[in-house]
Amino acid sequence: MPDTAHALGLATFLPDERTDPQKSARAAGHYLRSLFDKFGSWPLALAAYNAGEGRVSRLLASRGATDFAGVSSALPAETRMYVPKVCALVAIRTGTVL
Prior knowledge:
The chain is 69% helix and 0% strand. The protein has 6 helices and no strands. It has helices spanning 2-7, 21-39, 42-51, 53-63, 68-71, 77-94.
């Protein structure tokens, strides 16, 4: 998203640095790390990355939830599928369960 890109120091207009693999990957890594620091779990960080940190924060608060399972049913289908896919990929590639 443009606002997130700007907050991460990426230009979005001529040139659009989101299309630069090195710059966008570095920014995505920093953003994911900040989301992990905020939410305390990789599944929640991934959900916030995909669906928006505001949405995930609001769902956690309104449901009194503390984990992805507690909010997943209220997230968009795309996010409900995205989080387990990424977690599974990490587990397969590294042997680490998120």
